[in-house]
Specification:
Elements lengths: L1 H19 L8 H35 L7 H16 L1 H31 L5 H8 L3 H22 L4 H26 L9
Helix pairs in contact: 2-4, 3-4, 4-5, 4-6, 6-7
Length: 195
């Protein structure tokens, strides 16, 4: 069922981006193959980074047994973990770290996928080159699109299935439009942002 949902989302994003850029024809074999290959590579890259982070956390957990000799440090780490797991603020902090991580492993490489649909066909490494020097701005914008907006909307929406469904659909559209506008900014010919 999850695979079917992923296919549906992919088709929706493919059509939305193609129609946004008014690409005619929408479906060509070259465009479909190139976009599927790029998205598959981005997905594998993200999955590999998640696997490496998971491995690092397991290694950290394994090494924590040697921290028992340092009770203050061990207790601090244990309390921090319990806080992050139990509180809403802790979960938000975990989500913040995840958004920062996804900015570099999914969102920036995803610009290469958008460029394939737009007809420019930039490589994944080219996407990093376009954003180079503006990683903090990109991370903050992604944090706004994918963390702050949903948090604020879900805070004010009545928890009824109809309202939640409508608000999540609107949030998805806002996120996608914001993502495409960010892509447009970085892929224009002359771009400069300085922090």
């Amino acid at each position: 069922m999850l695979g079917l949902y992923g296919v549906f989302c992919y088709i929706f994003y493919y059509l939305f981006v193609s129609l946004y850029y008014n690409q005619k024809p929408i479906f060509t074999s070259e465009k479909i193959v190139n976009s599927v290959v790029k998205m598959f590579i981005v997905f594998l890259f993200s999955l590999a980074m998640i696997f490496i982070c998971d491995l690092g956390l397991k290694l950290l957990k394994y090494m924590a047994q040697w921290l028992i000799g340092f009770p203050d440090l061990y207790q601090l780490l244990k309390n921090t973990y319990q806080f992050l797991k139990a509180s809403m603020l802790g979960q938000f902090l975990i989500y913040t770290v995840l958004i920062c991580f996804l900015t570099f492993t999914f969102f920036i490489p995803g610009f290469a996928w958008v460029s394939t649909l737009n007809g420019k066909d930039i490589s994944i490494w080219g996407a990093y080159a376009k954003v180079h020097g503006n990683y903090l701005v990109t991370m903050l914008l992604m944090f706004g699109f994918f963390a702050v907006i949903p948090f604020v909307v879900n805070f004010f929406v009545v928890p009824k299935p109809l309202f939640l469904g409508i608000s999540h659909a609107l949030i998805s559209m806002i996120q996608l439009i914001g993502y495409i506008r960010l892509y447009d900014f970085f892929y224009q010919e002359d771009q400069t942002i300085q922090i």
